[in-house]
UniProtKB/TrEMBL annotation:
Originating species: Thermotomaculum hydrothermale
Name assigned to this protein: Peptidase C-terminal archaeal/bacterial domain-containing protein
Xref: Gene3D superfamilies: 2.60.120.380
Recorded superkingdom: Bacteria
Length: 639
């Protein structure tokens, strides 16, 4: 009897089917019968994974089932059939859906084999990964982004929002062969594939809507590229005095080298249009408007690229704010820094709706998702402050499109200092802070928000003005958390006074801003502070609208090269009527920053605005202040 059981076991073993399951990051027919070792981890930037198995001797058409369990618990089941007779390798490409733990189950001939593996956040320096799927994308704005195809299977998707019918040019610049495609609600409407290394471009007339832009390599090359969007997009500018006696000065600029008309609409706090005007602009001309009676501005042109900013100084000239218009009006934004955790600061946010709507969610436990009904309104976060609950950041959402700004105000008895920043929902994995200053009595503080449900690992790289690294620091930001502090406190060794800019690299998309100011003593009435948003969108042409140079006023100009190669930048200075006065050329090494007082850039007098033009993307900023140290504010260069 015992011998019979052994014999039956041996016979059963002969007919028991077994196979292995391998997980790999790439596989195709050129591998032949070679099967790589199974991977335990894959980077999310790979976009997909491959299930590979040697099924043994099979018959063409035999069926098998592949089941994939994703990190969020969802499942996909694929019913496949082999397409060969005899010995052969089965493989299947499966798209990734998020980072975390995956489980694969392959069933064939009533046998099931399982394999677990983990998908990690990206370690590359592609700023916009993960963007391998249409639903998880970065909104393109007018300007240029620097990105990469970092694996053979990487496909990059971006969103392009059009608010009114306009002509748009989308351009790719790369040393590898790329294809560019544009989709409208999933339908391909345009594509460019020249079959050559270098530029791809599309010129389109687009109606109002949200389009998808796809970048990929048809021959599966990897490498860097720049993606540029040009068009006559409308701009949105919220206007408020933050319950203070600010002037509201509006600057509208023509960024084009041609003349044309600009239509400007002004709205009240209820979203009702109260005034409009059509202004004719000469090339590179800037015009100023009094915004005292208005709460919201919208401007557009059919043939010009325009932009705008708002600035104001209070009657006592001890408080000033300045901020830029937005090209994007969306249904959500990140309020990345709420400084109610100290009695010295107040934080305000101000929102204006593109259309009338209800403000649904502020993303804050303190506000308890308050419903605030109005077309323009101001929120003072200090009213929600208590010792037990801190609100370091928030998410604003609405059923209507809106734009917003936030202001930080330093309080000292009867003395105030303030700065304002434009709000944005955009996040990135690589971005720059083009201006930090730790010399003498200056300080710079940074705020980095991690809106993800996983820990973000972030590297801070301090750069001197020549682009050399002068210090590195690694930080971890908890899920939906924030890191905030003075830059010198992040580095174990003292940050040298030569530190002039910072590069931020994260394995998950994050958002950053930075504030800077003076600490001259215990009396804060002697100090000033300002702020700027981080830079992840660049341009080959920057516009600096105002360069005041009075007896007591100064303007500081900064131009930063975010590229890994040297560039040439042509600077052109214009008078108040848009006439060219003088031009000069500067050269910037990789990651180098050029800084100057506005009055010292050109030898000629009477220069009131400047453009900077390069064949590679650049970013820039300008600071305004007075020599009595009573106010300071910063603006990003217009693009």
């Amino acid at each position: 009897m015992k011998r019979l059981c052994i014999l039956l076991f041996l016979i059963f073993s002969l007919f028991t089917y077994s196979f292995d399951v391998v997980i790999t990051d790439y596989y195709d027919d050129t591998f032949g019968d070679y099967i790589p070792e199974s991977l335990e981890t894959i980077n999310y930037s790979n976009a997909c994974f491959y299930v590979v198995s040697d099924l043994g001797n099979v018959t063409n058409g035999e069926s098998l089932t592949l089941k994939v369990t994703y990190p969020d618990g969802s499942e996909s089941e694929f019913n496949e059939s082999v397409d060969f007779d005899g010995e052969g390798i089965f493989y299947k490409r499966v798209d990734l859906k998020g980072v975390g733990n995956y489980k694969v189950e392959l069933t064939f001939n009533n046998e099931t084999e399982e394999k677990d593996f983990t998908v990690n956040p990206d370690k590359s320096e592609d700023p916009f990964e993960p963007n391998n799927f249409e639903g998880n994308v970065f909104y393109l704005e007018r300007g240029t982004i620097l990105s990469s195809l970092i694996s053979q299977e990487d496909i990059d998707y971006y969103s392009l929002k059009i608010d009114r019918k306009t002509d748009v040019k989308i351009s790719l610049d790369s040393d590898i062969d790329l294809s560019l495609e544009v989709f409208d609600e999933g339908n391909l409407i345009a594509q460019s594939d020249s079959d050559f290394e270098g530029d791809e471009s599309l010129s389109l007339s687009l109606e109002r809507g949200i389009y998808t832009v796809k970048v990929y390599s048809p021959i599966k090359e990897t490498g860097d590229y720049s993606l540029t969007v040009k068009g006559n997009f409308p701009i949105y500018l919220p206007l408020t005095d933050f319950d203070r006696s600010f002037e509201k000065n509006i600057v509208v600029s023509n960024l084009s080298d041609k003349e044309g008309d600009v239509e400007i609409h002004f709205y009240d706090a209820d979203g009702q249009e109260v005034s409009n005007t059509v202004e004719h602009f000469k090339p590179y001309e800037t015009k100023s408007f009094d915004g005292s009676d208005y709460y919201y501005l919208k401007a557009y042109s059919d043939n010009l690229e325009v932009n705008a900013s708002a600035y104001g100084i209070n009657g006592d000239k001890n408080e000033a704010i300045g901020y830029e218009a937005k090209i994007l009006a969306l249904n959500n934004t990140i309020v990345s820094h709420i400084a109610t955790q100290t009695y010295l600061y107040e934080t305000f946010s101000y929102f204006s709706f593109n259309d009338n709507g209800t403000f649904l969610n502020y993303g804050s436990d303190v506000l308890s998702n308050s419903i605030l009904e109005n077309s323009s309104f101001l929120v003072n976060f200090n009213q929600f402050y208590n010792d037990n609950i801190l609100t370091p950041w928030g998410i604003a959402e609405s059923d209507a499109e809106f734009c917003g700004i936030e202001m930080f105000r330093l309080i000292g008895g009867d003395f105030f200092q303030a700065t304002a920043l434009t709000l944005t929902p955009q996040v990135a994995r690589v971005f720059f802070l083009p201006h930090i200053d730790v010399r003498y009595f200056w300080w710079t503080g940074i705020s980095i928000v991690n809106p993800n449900n996983m820990q973000a690992n972030v590297k801070l790289i301090a750069l001197d003005s020549d682009g050399n690294s002068v210090g590195e620091a690694d930080i971890s930001i908890e899920p939906e958390g924030k890191s905030v502090g003075i830059v010198t406190d992040y580095f174990e060794n003292d940050l040298p006074e030569t530190a002039a800019a910072m590069k931020i690299v994260s394995d998950l998309p994050v958002q950053g801003l930075y504030l800077f100011g003076t600490k001259r003593g215990d009396d804060i009435t002697e100090d000033v502070f300002g702020g700027l948003n981080s830079s992840a969108i660049y341009s080959k042409k920057l516009y600096f609208a105002l360069m005041p140079s009075g007896d007591n006023e100064w303007t500081g100009i900064g131009i930063f090269n975010p590229n890994n190669e040297g560039i040439e930048v042509n600077l052109k200075g214009f008078d108040s009527n848009g006439n060219l006065i003088e031009e000069k050329t500067i050269n910037l090494t990789p990651l180098q920053k050029y800084v100057s007082l506005g009055k010292d850039i050109f030898d000629s007098e009477g220069v009131y605005r400047m453009i900077a033009v390069s064949d590679k993307p650049i970013c820039g900023f300008y600071l305004f202040g007075d020599r009595d140290h009573t106010y300071l504010y910063g603006l990003e260069a217009m693009r």
